[in-house]
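Researcher: Here's the sequence for the chain we discussed earlier.
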Amino acid sequence: MKKLIVTAGVVAVSALGAVSSASAAGTQHPQVGIKKCGTGTYAVACTSPKVSTSSSLKPGCVNSGTSVKLPTFSFTANAGIKKITVTITKRTLKTVSPKGEPTTYKLKNVAVPTVDLASGAHSVTVKVTDGKGKTASKTLHFSVCVAKPVFTG
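Model: Thanks. This is the structure I predict for it:
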């Protein structure tokens, strides 16, 4: 009795316990990554991009003249990431346009200077735009402490 076993491109035939095999030694199989939408024979549907972060800003207020360090942001977009912007009060702090419009990207080590900010609550918005023009954003909030009065006299 002979058995035919096929696993991962290797064919083995056993006859009375003897096994012979033919394998494609040295053949490498490419890893499959996130496929861009609208490409290839079997195109995947374009979905809206996503923005996520593993943490938020620390509660409390920061002193004027210091910086607020933002957490790491992760972006995914199967239409490719075209642009990322970081804004505070309608002012753009940073713009990133990744080369080749990758489907994933991480934004790290962004600091928001508080020198010109008034005391009180502020919002930082991180927005991603994909290759099809769809957007997603995440907003974080922090406060600048009220300056302590200086007494003279």
